Amino acid sequence: MLKDFTKGFVKENPVFVLALGLCPALGVTSKVVNALGMGAGVIFVLLGSNIFVSVLKNFIPEKVRIPAYIVIIASFVTIVEMVMEAFVPALFESLGVFVPLIVVNCVILGRAEAFANKNSVKSSILDALGMGIGFTFALLIIAFIREVLGSGTISLIPIGTWDGIVSIPGLSKSPARVFSLAAGALLVMGYLKALFNWAELKKAGAKK
Amino acid sequence: MTYIGIIITFVFINNFILTQFLGLCPFIGVSKNVESAVGMGFAVTFVMSIAALATWAIQNFILVPLNIEFLQTITFILMIAALVQFVEMFIQKSSPSLYKALGIYLPLITTNCAVLGIALIAVRSNYNAIESFVAGIAAGLGFLLAILLMSTIREKLDAEWIPAPLRGTPIAFITGGLMALAFMAFDKTLLNNLIG
Question: Most buried of B7, B23, B26, B185 (most Cβ within 10 A)?
Answer without folding.
Answer: B23
